[in-house]
Amino acid sequence: MSILLFAAGLVSLVTGAESLVAGASRLAGVFRVPPLLVGLTVVAFGTSSPELAVSIDSALSGESGISLGNVLGSNIFNILFILGLSALIIPVTVSRKLVRLDVPVMIAVSLFLLILSLDGELSRSEGVVLLLCLAAYIFFLIRQGLSEKTLPPEDGTGGRRARRRGSRPVIDALMIVLGFALLVLGSDWLVRGAVSIAVSLRVSGMVIGLTVVAVGTSLPELFTSVVAAVRGERDIAVGNVIGSNIFNIMGVLGASAVLSPRSIPVPPAVLGFDMPVMAAAAVACLPIFFTGGRISRPEALLLLGYYFAYAAYLVMAASHHDALGGFSSVMLYFVIPLTIVTMAVIVLLEIRRQRGSGRRESTAPPEHL
Hints:
- The chain is mainly α.
- It has helices at residues 2-30, 35-47, 49-60, 64-89, 96-116, 124-147, 157-165, 169-200, 205-216, 219-230, 234-259, 268-290, 297-319, 324-363; strands at residues 92-93, 121-122, 264-265, 294-295.
- Strands 1-4 form a two-stranded antiparallel ribbon.
């Protein structure tokens, strides 16, 4: 039964992701809305619904710590694993707007959360501030998206694209709703099935919690971004990850802090490790996105490598493994500094290359007609 539940969840996730991406991309073409806006809002917020449901339920039941852990774990998984896996399958081209606006917003809210947590808790008033910031961000996105609509159907390629894919707004909207429902249902089935299989194999509860359950609420983002990347909807693939992370912090954690009977406690271990890791993962996106305007396969492998290192650290820390000290030292004093230096060199070389190309363009002789 557990295997059947696991398989049904997997099929539901794949079908839901395909339905969501197809409906959202077609609807964007019909209404001439940029796909990036759809990825940052409709798709991103929809795929974050499992995190929202789990966190609000945890907050109302007084288990507010689960809300915080859910958001931090999901955001780290979204950037390091989902973005890395999507780019590993097909190198992802990153929108210039995403680099200039949305990635800095994600970095800013990640650092803002870190600052709010320095006193060891997230209060209800701080949750209200996060929700207000989310409302302002959505308002800005919609306003900017409406001003950047593509050409009318009869004048540009947007119309031909919409006609080619079929202008069926009602059906496309139903596909989006169906996709959301299948993603949430499939995520629940897959997690429950995987937990049952793990228990039957006598895998420890610690390993189950750190792997299957922690990743479960991010499965909709995973399948949606991978399907979008395969279908060539790269703005939706990347926008889904960035938008989900922004929504998780300002929306999910903000709502949890407001609804929680008490302030959400931030343990020293979380403040000293997990939250900085989430902020560092967000900051790491900027140089990766900046260099060449794409996420290459080597960069994707780097992201995936860091996620597996983070997961290994969690497992060793929870089991008090003897190798934890050595592993931490290697990561802290060798791997992380080497990565920072490498990224800095890449960014400096890219800036130098762009300046050189700019000088060549400015000094080039004018063409004679």
